[in-house]
Protein: Transglycosylase
Organism: Chryseobacterium arachidis
Amino acid sequence: MKYFRRIFIVTATAFIVFLLYCEFGGKFILNDSDKQMIAYEIRSSEEIPDNFTNFYNTIYPNSLSENSWNYIFSALIDQKAPRKECHCNQMAYRFFPILEINHKKGIDQFLTARFIENKFSQKECLQFNFNHFDFLENRKGLTKISKSLFNKEIKDLQPLEMAEILALYENPVRNNRNRNPENAKKRTAYLYNLYIKNSNSKN
Protein backbone atom coordinates (compact mmCIF):
# COMPACT_ATOMS: atom_id res chain seq x y z
CA MET A 1 0.00 0.00 0.00
CA LYS A 2 2.84 2.37 0.90
CA TYR A 3 4.48 1.54 -2.43
CA PHE A 4 1.40 2.58 -4.42
CA ARG A 5 1.02 5.72 -2.33
CA ARG A 6 4.62 6.69 -3.07
CA ILE A 7 4.07 6.06 -6.77
CA PHE A 8 0.95 8.22 -6.67
CA ILE A 9 2.74 11.05 -4.83
CA VAL A 10 5.70 10.98 -7.21
CA THR A 11 3.42 10.88 -10.26
CA ALA A 12 1.20 13.68 -8.95
CA THR A 13 4.23 15.81 -8.08
CA ALA A 14 5.77 15.26 -11.51
CA PHE A 15 2.47 16.18 -13.16
CA ILE A 16 2.15 19.39 -11.14
CA VAL A 17 5.75 20.35 -11.92
CA PHE A 18 5.09 19.70 -15.62
CA LEU A 19 1.98 21.91 -15.57
CA LEU A 20 3.91 24.70 -13.83
CA TYR A 21 6.66 24.37 -16.42
CA CYS A 22 4.11 24.64 -19.23
CA GLU A 23 2.53 27.69 -17.61
CA PHE A 24 5.66 29.65 -16.72
CA GLY A 25 8.51 28.01 -18.66
CA GLY A 26 8.42 30.65 -21.39
CA LYS A 27 9.81 33.15 -18.92
CA PHE A 28 13.00 31.09 -18.71
CA ILE A 29 13.51 29.85 -22.28
CA LEU A 30 13.12 33.31 -23.87
CA ASN A 31 16.06 35.68 -23.64
CA ASP A 32 15.65 39.38 -22.88
CA SER A 33 15.93 40.49 -26.51
CA ASP A 34 13.16 38.10 -27.58
CA LYS A 35 10.93 39.30 -24.75
CA GLN A 36 11.54 42.93 -25.70
CA MET A 37 10.91 42.20 -29.38
CA ILE A 38 7.59 40.46 -28.64
CA ALA A 39 6.47 43.30 -26.36
CA TYR A 40 7.44 45.96 -28.91
CA GLU A 41 5.66 44.21 -31.82
CA ILE A 42 2.44 43.85 -29.84
CA ARG A 43 2.40 47.36 -28.39
CA SER A 44 3.23 49.00 -31.71
CA SER A 45 0.43 47.23 -33.59
CA GLU A 46 -2.39 49.45 -34.81
CA GLU A 47 -5.52 49.17 -32.70
CA ILE A 48 -8.43 47.45 -34.43
CA PRO A 49 -11.84 49.16 -34.12
CA ASP A 50 -14.50 47.44 -32.03
CA ASN A 51 -16.75 46.70 -34.99
CA PHE A 52 -14.17 44.33 -36.49
CA THR A 53 -13.19 42.79 -33.15
CA ASN A 54 -16.84 42.13 -32.32
CA PHE A 55 -17.42 40.66 -35.78
CA TYR A 56 -14.50 38.26 -35.36
CA ASN A 57 -15.59 37.27 -31.87
CA THR A 58 -19.12 36.60 -33.15
CA ILE A 59 -17.77 34.30 -35.87
CA TYR A 60 -15.51 32.58 -33.34
CA PRO A 61 -17.36 32.82 -29.99
CA ASN A 62 -15.10 33.18 -26.93
CA SER A 63 -12.03 33.64 -29.13
CA LEU A 64 -11.04 36.68 -27.05
CA SER A 65 -11.43 34.91 -23.73
CA GLU A 66 -9.91 31.48 -24.33
CA ASN A 67 -6.20 30.68 -24.47
CA SER A 68 -3.63 28.12 -25.58
CA TRP A 69 -4.81 25.58 -23.02
CA ASN A 70 -8.24 25.64 -24.64
CA TYR A 71 -6.62 25.27 -28.06
CA ILE A 72 -4.55 22.27 -26.93
CA PHE A 73 -7.61 20.52 -25.48
CA SER A 74 -9.55 21.25 -28.69
CA ALA A 75 -6.66 19.93 -30.80
CA LEU A 76 -6.58 16.70 -28.77
CA ILE A 77 -10.25 16.17 -29.61
CA ASP A 78 -10.04 17.45 -33.18
CA GLN A 79 -6.64 17.61 -34.89
CA LYS A 80 -8.10 20.07 -37.40
CA ALA A 81 -8.95 22.64 -34.72
CA PRO A 82 -8.13 26.05 -36.26
CA ARG A 83 -5.15 27.79 -34.67
CA LYS A 84 -6.62 31.15 -35.69
CA GLU A 85 -9.23 30.83 -32.97
CA CYS A 86 -6.42 31.34 -30.44
CA HIS A 87 -4.73 34.60 -31.37
CA CYS A 88 -1.75 34.44 -29.00
CA ASN A 89 -1.02 30.83 -29.99
CA GLN A 90 -1.08 31.90 -33.62
CA MET A 91 1.24 34.78 -32.79
CA ALA A 92 3.68 32.43 -31.04
CA TYR A 93 3.57 30.20 -34.13
CA ARG A 94 4.59 33.17 -36.31
CA PHE A 95 7.39 34.26 -33.96
CA PHE A 96 8.77 30.81 -33.15
CA PRO A 97 11.16 30.41 -36.14
CA ILE A 98 13.05 33.63 -35.32
CA LEU A 99 13.26 33.23 -31.53
CA GLU A 100 16.73 32.56 -30.12
CA ILE A 101 15.76 29.52 -28.06
CA ASN A 102 18.50 26.98 -27.41
CA HIS A 103 17.74 23.45 -28.63
CA LYS A 104 14.19 24.24 -29.75
CA LYS A 105 11.55 21.63 -29.01
CA GLY A 106 7.90 21.44 -30.01
CA ILE A 107 6.73 22.30 -26.50
CA ASP A 108 8.69 25.57 -26.60
CA GLN A 109 6.09 27.06 -28.92
CA PHE A 110 3.39 26.41 -26.32
CA LEU A 111 5.61 27.89 -23.60
CA THR A 112 6.06 30.99 -25.77
CA ALA A 113 2.30 31.26 -26.28
CA ARG A 114 1.65 31.05 -22.54
CA PHE A 115 4.35 33.66 -21.88
CA ILE A 116 2.55 36.01 -24.28
CA GLU A 117 -0.88 35.24 -22.80
CA ASN A 118 0.33 35.92 -19.27
CA LYS A 119 1.39 39.42 -20.31
CA PHE A 120 -0.99 40.42 -23.11
CA SER A 121 -4.64 39.94 -24.01
CA GLN A 122 -6.07 37.90 -26.86
CA LYS A 123 -7.32 41.17 -28.37
CA GLU A 124 -3.78 42.54 -28.47
CA CYS A 125 -2.60 39.36 -30.18
CA LEU A 126 -5.50 39.60 -32.64
CA GLN A 127 -4.40 43.15 -33.51
CA PHE A 128 -0.85 41.99 -34.12
CA ASN A 129 -1.94 39.08 -36.32
CA PHE A 130 -4.18 41.14 -38.58
CA ASN A 131 -1.79 44.07 -38.83
CA HIS A 132 1.07 41.78 -39.88
CA PHE A 133 -0.88 39.44 -42.13
CA ASP A 134 0.03 39.47 -45.81
CA PHE A 135 -3.18 39.50 -47.85
CA LEU A 136 -0.99 39.40 -51.00
CA GLU A 137 -0.97 41.88 -53.88
CA ASN A 138 1.01 44.34 -51.75
CA ARG A 139 -1.71 44.47 -49.11
CA LYS A 140 -0.19 43.81 -45.73
CA GLY A 141 -2.32 44.57 -42.72
CA LEU A 142 -5.98 45.22 -42.08
CA THR A 143 -5.91 48.91 -43.00
CA LYS A 144 -4.45 48.26 -46.45
CA ILE A 145 -6.84 45.45 -47.33
CA SER A 146 -9.81 47.54 -46.21
CA LYS A 147 -8.69 50.43 -48.41
CA SER A 148 -7.88 48.15 -51.34
CA LEU A 149 -11.16 46.23 -51.39
CA PHE A 150 -13.66 48.85 -50.28
CA ASN A 151 -11.81 52.19 -50.04
CA LYS A 152 -13.01 52.44 -46.44
CA GLU A 153 -11.64 52.87 -42.96
CA ILE A 154 -11.93 49.71 -40.88
CA LYS A 155 -14.45 51.36 -38.55
CA ASP A 156 -16.80 51.95 -41.50
CA LEU A 157 -16.86 48.36 -42.78
CA GLN A 158 -20.16 46.49 -42.97
CA PRO A 159 -20.52 42.83 -41.84
CA LEU A 160 -20.51 41.47 -45.41
CA GLU A 161 -17.31 43.39 -46.16
CA MET A 162 -15.66 42.14 -42.99
CA ALA A 163 -16.69 38.61 -43.96
CA GLU A 164 -14.78 38.95 -47.23
CA ILE A 165 -11.69 40.16 -45.38
CA LEU A 166 -11.96 37.26 -42.95
CA ALA A 167 -12.27 34.85 -45.90
CA LEU A 168 -9.04 36.30 -47.30
CA TYR A 169 -7.42 35.98 -43.88
CA GLU A 170 -8.26 32.28 -43.90
CA ASN A 171 -6.75 31.76 -47.36
CA PRO A 172 -5.55 34.78 -49.38
CA VAL A 173 -5.18 32.73 -52.58
CA ARG A 174 -8.20 30.46 -52.58
CA ASN A 175 -10.56 33.20 -51.35
CA ASN A 176 -9.27 36.01 -53.57
CA ARG A 177 -12.12 37.69 -55.48
CA ASN A 178 -9.90 38.25 -58.54
CA ARG A 179 -8.25 34.84 -58.74
CA ASN A 180 -11.08 32.65 -57.51
CA PRO A 181 -14.31 34.68 -57.54
CA GLU A 182 -16.61 31.70 -56.92
CA ASN A 183 -14.64 30.46 -53.92
CA ALA A 184 -14.38 33.98 -52.53
CA LYS A 185 -18.10 34.60 -52.90
CA LYS A 186 -19.03 31.24 -51.39
CA ARG A 187 -16.74 31.58 -48.36
CA THR A 188 -17.75 35.20 -47.77
CA ALA A 189 -21.43 34.22 -47.82
CA TYR A 190 -20.77 31.36 -45.39
CA LEU A 191 -18.98 33.61 -42.89
CA TYR A 192 -21.61 36.34 -43.22
CA ASN A 193 -24.45 33.86 -42.62
CA LEU A 194 -22.55 32.42 -39.65
CA TYR A 195 -22.22 35.93 -38.25
CA ILE A 196 -25.98 36.52 -38.63
CA LYS A 197 -26.77 33.14 -37.05
CA ASN A 198 -24.47 33.68 -34.07
CA SER A 199 -25.69 37.26 -33.64
CA ASN A 200 -29.30 36.09 -33.47
CA SER A 201 -28.44 33.37 -30.97
CA LYS A 202 -27.08 36.04 -28.61
CA ASN A 203 -30.42 37.84 -28.54
In short: The first helix runs from residue 2 to 24. The CA atoms of residues 175 and 186 lie 9 Å apart.
